[in-house]
Write a structure and sequence with these properties.
Length: 250
Amino acid sequence: MSAVKNVIKDNYNMMLLKDYLRIAIKEAGFSHAEISKTPTGTRVALHVTRPGIVIGRKGSGIRELTEKLASDFGLKNPQISVVEIDKPELSPSVMCNRMASHIERGTAFRRATMWTLKQIMDNGAMGVQITISGKLRGDRSAFEKHTAGILPRAGHHAEMIVDEDIAHVKTPMGLIGIRIRIARKEKLIPEFELKKEKPKKPMQIKDKDTGKMRDETEAERKARTESEQIALEEEEMKKLNIDDEEIILK
């Protein structure tokens, strides 16, 4: 087999592997996988938001995943490591999957788009662009593009600081595609200068035991699985003042 065919075959297998991981460890908030070959086998680093779900009880999840990668995808002696993502909201893959889950559960596409845009910018992104296309409202295909912040579109800056991913979701009206591009501040090129934002005050909640108001902790806001995260976001999403019937194209 020629070198070109080998490259095509490897890229095709990596595409199938990514599609499988996106579904198999969806609850763990899968972002991406880094695969490298070594003399003793294949190293697979899984970047997820909730490592405990991938590892499983006493490592059972890792063992099952290792066997699957070896048997179905032909990886030689796969050695899996799990890396936790510090800020899931700045990962295009994670946010694509979350937005797709919201639309699958019946949330209006524009409300899901505005919520996702807000979450990404609130967590420190320099800029974001969300494009949603497909049969959004009728038999004819359409698309909407929403942008916030600073987002280089082309050239060296775009290659250096912008990450993107694409997800697809099936709806009763047809297939909808979601594309999210995020520019991150930590990858900032020296030519750019950004103003520092003031730290946000913590939200006040009522203590169930004492009945007094206190600051909400990060542990109380964090969901255990992606499904719980989606359910929590849907409750917050209802508070957004968005007219789902109003059509605004950018």
